[in-house]
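tool_call predict_complex ligand=iron/sulfur cluster
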Amino acid sequence: MKNLLEVSNLHVYFETPAGLVRANNGLDLQLEAGGSLGIMGESGCGKTVLVYTLLGLQQPGKIMNGSILFKGRELVNLPEAELNNIRGRQIALIPQNQSTALNPLLKVGEQISEIETALKIPDTGLDNAKHLLAELGLGDIHSVEHILKSYPHQLSGGMRQRVLTAMALLAEPDLLVADEPTTALDASTRTTALNILKKSSSKTSLLVISHDLPALKTLCPKLAVMYAGRVVEYSDTESLMENPRHPYSRMLMKYQQSAGFLNMPLTGFESRDLLGDDKGCSFALFCPQATAICLKEIPQEVCLESGRVVCHLYTRNGVQTC
Ligand code: SF4
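tool_result ok
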């Protein structure tokens, strides 16, 4: 199947008083049209920077190198006016944290009208939004009318999640990006959020950024693991969860299984090597299988039968780079 999204060798850096932070550092990923891809990794690995870079909102970060092809079109260095035609219309975002993402001073219906105006969606008197909200499980049209006249604080977490999803789907985007869609949700709202996204995946391609492994398993047949600004392993979700190949992925899975938590706990090895010289493997200081070459040479991507992995272990074993 044709790729909807192809990110190649993406480098996004931030200048900080402590030095240059390499938030995305040679990141590669692909998403097929109609597919769903999960991206997992701990805090600070560059997941959210990737999301904002896809939308051209990475500033003050700078794209130093790389390519983002969306429907075959290069997004890096695209003029702002053209990016505006893509944001919201072709690539839409469900932001993190439903409790703060909506404007507390405007009723839901007013916020949806603003979005329709900004995206130049024909005025249907909010009919599209009403149908979407009803489809997403907010009850009959009468209940939906009530929600449109409500302020965000008058809605439950699950209702706000549905409203944000409906807003993202208004323009029928080709790609829906959900950034940590289950973070800080109680159990029942989390289930609602997952059901909503599952439903949405029949309308659009899905990129789900999360550290909630069970959620990713539910939503995404393909999974990428990020560490220190790179995708270090990419595979089908089941293989990656059952037989992770990268040492960092193995640790993530081990912690998940032993902790038995819904959300993945920090391993203690979260991406730290984002500052300073870009030398060797970023995981080398924590990796139980590191050897001398790991401290000196940046590993290249290797193709395995189940997917791809970025690790010297496999080149050492004579496997060719992709
Ligand atoms: S390249 Fe070396 S340090 Fe990095 S994950 Fe592989 S074995 Fe470990």
